[in-house]
Design brief:
67 residues
Length: 67
């Protein structure tokens, strides 16, 4: 029985790599900063005024958390 020899994979050429588009880093950073601002100052966050049931639900959750 003959054994096969394993060849080493060729290393990537220098300077060749995966490049991300600008928004792949900008969008998560923007989302993180927006959430951080809301955590630091929650009084600026406002609920949507579309459905009063959602507003009531948010108010009840706030009351439960305030206890």
């Amino acid at each position: 029985m003959s054994a096969t020899t394993h060849t080493r994979p060729r290393p990537a050429a220098p300077g060749v790599g995966a490049r991300l588009p600008w928004w792949a880093l900008a969008l998560p950073t923007l989302a993180f900063v927006a959430l951080l601002v809301l955590i630091l100052n929650p009084s600026d966050a406002q609920t949507a005024s579309g459905d009063p049931a959602i507003t009531d639900l948010v108010d009840r959750v706030r009351q439960l958390l305030a206890r």
